[in-house]
TrEMBL record:
Residues 1-174 form the G-protein coupled receptors family 1 profile domain. It is found in: Membrane. This is Olfactory receptor 51I2. Pfam families: 7tm_4. The chain crosses the membrane at residues 24-45, 79-101, 122-142, 154-176. It is a multi-pass membrane protein. GO terms for molecular function: odorant binding; olfactory receptor activity. The gene is or64i1.
Amino acid sequence: MAYDRYVCICNPLRYNTIMSHSTVYKILAGSCTYSIVAFGTHMLLTYRLPLCGAEILKIYCDNWSIVRLSCIDTSINNIYGLFMVSFYFGLLLILIMYSYIEILKVCARSSQAVIAKALQTCTPQLITTINLMTASCFDIFLYRYIPTIVPYEFRLFISLEFLVVSPILNALVYGLKMSELRAKIFKTFNMKRIPGSTKPYH
């Protein structure tokens, strides 16, 4: 998404050439390959562990919830997990920061209309990315290091935020930009638009 925004704003006339079908397929293939290798290795490392407990501290089961139930040394799992988290978030932050620095450079030399369009295009990604990364960091490190110190209600909130709120927020932030979806929402709730305005009224 960061690369797509970068090309869209910094190279608008070459967008269709750069973001061709082959480029999109390569990006998708890279994402899928990374996920298969990373999570496949996680599963293999976890599969070898004998379990000596049955209490899961989350409202859903994930890899670390199973690893912490093992009665043997899990240092390899811990090191690999922290490495993958650091690599994923580090790479993600570098790519996003680079793309937005380049976008800001273009905006600094452009008109107010271009700046407004860039903000409209980039803000949804920033909102969803910040929300996802914040929830992920809390979810990962909270249960890895201080799972029983934090109150249960807060742990429940973080789990729900990571599991439920993030996907819903993505759908809302990106979906509401579609005029067809907005029209259906307004129709569902019997809302009408004020003529000449983007704001609805009841």
